[in-house]
């Protein structure tokens, strides 16, 4: 009875080892998201630089128009009114562009905060992995000693692969968890374990 309890604890340890693999997958997803955020950050920076150049060009045109307006002001009040209207329109466009630049600046700040959050999550995943790996390795080694099963941890998701080094001959294990029930898989793996105790 105690042996079955030990085997159950080993199975729980194996499940926690498998969760380490999920942490690595989560870290890869976070790295992918981090690259996407960096891409968006660079695109936003490029857009902000283009907008800034547009604003500077517009301000230059406004200044030039203003100088021209002053020169033509002496030619008549009607022309001056038209130029003042153009100047007002240019100022409104300038204000609109500055508002757009402010909006881009806020988006850039949000992206930087998102990047910092992703980096924090990556550090947490690294810390979690560092904490769980030693105990997971110990459990895996202990389980291998008792069960005589050498697992293939690099197989495709959904597959259970390994080699059972039985008392007489080594036997490959190849199970598809998407096709078989967990009970069947558990019963099958337990059936491979030698119940005779060998000191």
Task: Describe the model.
With 199 residues, this protein is mostly helical. The chain has a domain at 20-131. 77% of the residues lie in helices and 9% in strands. The protein has three helices and three strands; from the N terminus they run H-H-E-E-E-H. A three-stranded antiparallel β-sheet has the order 1-2-3. A hairpin with a 4-residue loop joins strand 2 and strand 3. Helix 1 packs antiparallel against helix 2 (77-147). The longest helix has 72 residues, at 2-73. The chain is rod-shaped, with a radius of gyration of 34 Å.
In a nutshell, what does this entry contain?
77% of the residues lie in helices and 9% in strands. By secondary structure, the chain is mostly helical.
Strand order of the largest sheet: 1-2-3
Computed structural class:
mainly alpha
Helix amount = over 70%
Separation of the first and last Cα atoms? 17 Å
- Main sheet makeup: 3 strands, antiparallel
Give the radius of gyration: 34 Å
Average pLDDT level: 77
- According to DSSP, the number of beta strands is 3
Written as H for each helix and E for each strand, in order along the chain, the element string is: HHEEEH
Strand composition percent: 5-15%
What characteristic shape results from the CA principal axes?
Answer: rod-shaped
* Contiguous helical run count: 3
Spans of 5+ residues with little confidence (pLDDT < 50)?
none
């Amino acid at each position: 009875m105690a042996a079955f309890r030990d085997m159950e604890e080993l199975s729980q340890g194996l499940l926690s080892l498998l969760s380490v693999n999920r942490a690595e997958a989560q870290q890869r997803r976070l790295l992918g998201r981090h690259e996407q955020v960096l891409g968006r950050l660079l695109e936003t920076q490029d857009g902000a630089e283009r907008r800034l150049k547009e604003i500077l060009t517009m301000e230059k045109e406004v200044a030039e128009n203003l100088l021209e307006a002053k020169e033509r002001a002496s030619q008549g009040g009607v022309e001056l009114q038209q130029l003042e209207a153009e100047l007002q329109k240019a100022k409104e466009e300038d204000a609109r562009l500055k508002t757009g630049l402010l909006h881009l600046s806020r988006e850039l700040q949000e992206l930087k905060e998102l990047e910092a959050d992703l980096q924090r999550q990556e550090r947490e995943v690294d810390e979690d992995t560092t904490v769980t790996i030693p105990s997971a390795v110990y459990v895996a080694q202990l389980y291998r000693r008792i069960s005589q099963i050498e697992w293939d941890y690099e197989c495709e998701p959904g597959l259970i692969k390994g080699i059972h080094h039985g008392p007489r001959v080594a036997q490959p294990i190849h199970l598809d968890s998407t096709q078989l029930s967990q009970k069947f898989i558990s019963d099958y793996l337990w059936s491979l374990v030698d119940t005779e105790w060998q000191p």
